[in-house]
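Bench notes, bay 3.
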Amino acid sequence: MTSIRIVRFAVRATPEEVWRALLDGAVTPQYYVGFEAHIDPAPGTPYRYTAGGGDMITGQVREVVPGRRLVTTFNGHWAPEVDALPESLVTFDLSDALMPIPGVTLLTCRHENLPDGPLAEHLELGWVSILSGLKTLLETGTPLAA
């Protein structure tokens, strides 16, 4: 059986600001556990997150709607048990139309095709930490973790 993990946050920022934070390798280390993004947001292109000179996450961009939607495959490499997982799918959706507050973006992260169990729960908590960090950084200008 496979898990689908969904994490949602209301971020006091425009979809364009959230989009930039998701893709900009100069920004991602401040909230994404030190991982630097290397993403060309074009369908079919490979992407990776690096740290300490090695690949932590690799995959392929599947779908892009600039400023609104990014779908990628996901292969984690930071621990042997994560590396052993089958390829999964991560989708980020951004919308300000659903929010009743001007200047606020609803950021939804959906991680699909994970085997059920503690590792899927661990990855979900990872997304909560990462996206909490993104929210804090965009709203305060300061990283969540120093």
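Next record in the batch:
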Amino acid sequence: MKGQAVAILLMFASSLAFDERVVSFEKPQADGKHWALLVAGSNGYYNYRHQADTCHAYQILKSHGIPDERIIVMMFDDIAHNEENPVKGNIINQPGGPNVYTGVPKDYTGKDVNPETFLSVLKGEKDKVSGKVIDSGPNDHVFVNFVDHGGPGIIAFGSKMLKATALNDAIMYLKDNNRYSKLVFYVEACESGSMFEDMLPKDINVFATTASNAHESSYACYFDKTRKTYLGDVYSVKWMQDSDKEDLSQETLSKQFKITKSETNTSHVMEYGDLTMGDLKVADFQGNQMSTGPAPNTADPCADAVKSEDVPVEILRRSIDLADSEQERMDLERKLTALLEERAMVESAANQIVQIATGDHIMTAKIANTRHHIKQWACYESTVEYLKAKCPKTFNIPMNDYALRKLYMFVNMCEENISQKRVMSAIDKVCTEA
């Protein structure tokens, strides 16, 4: 009898554990809500695709029933009516697609699109911003979609940077202050995996997917000959086209991740945090009403995909082929030559800094050909800030996506214990001579 009693108690305990697991995977509770924060951090017409991605994301959430008062949009808003845009008031995210700019809330635009405002909005700090915030509570589900350029441990916000340490500190603040039940991030940026890798805990009900791993570029897609720019980014286009066509009340986060990962053959789509949240339905974060939105385009975005840092070059090269006059062609060729010279300067300056800082050919080669994970965060972040301040013309961090691709060398110097004083001295020398 004693053995039977123990068995019954064990079965009861197991059933409780199972019930707790099931509860953790249900929709927001009756008094819970959906919240969403959608961000395009960049500006400039050549970055058209970032705001197109964000506007499309808004249309998905809106069509699935999330009200505007709980969708916050941050974008510079310089694309729809840009002088270079031949179709004013119009932004599309795929060839022949609908105008995704229609009805998009302009919660934060222009200079208000910055990392400080983003973090305050995410944390619900009403006293620090002029507009809406994620005013979520312990029963709510929060969805965050960020689109911009990136580098090791940073994602760009125009002329400013959001650091991985600051983002993860904000996530822990949300956790400690019961600001969500479940939290999901979809991040489109080069090296975006570095924002979460070895940092995002697996037990705080946060799930993140990224367009690329910690060491590679993300890719733009859908070059439009009329608009003379790229309309979208491969990872973003893939997950959104999936959301456009699927019954999100039946599709899980894991299924959408796997579809996006398998169809994005340009970079390695990654997942981080609490992977058991993959059992949750996509509707639990993107809205649970059936969408009446348009069917996705069948054109493969990978067909004309290009690395993010190469977008300005490819736009100019394609525009040269489309030039209407000899004068226009010559002007574009001059711009392309100047851009390639700027990239050569970045390459040369980065190599010189490493050579001076290491003073050793073998170590210099190692720094250039290794990809370390970031562990020395304080060293790396302060070095990048110093580089940004001392080399605004040559590197133009973080607005120059090509320069962001060289920051791995500064990660490596910190991880190889190259004296930070020597690195900063090298930066002083090279940038004075540049």
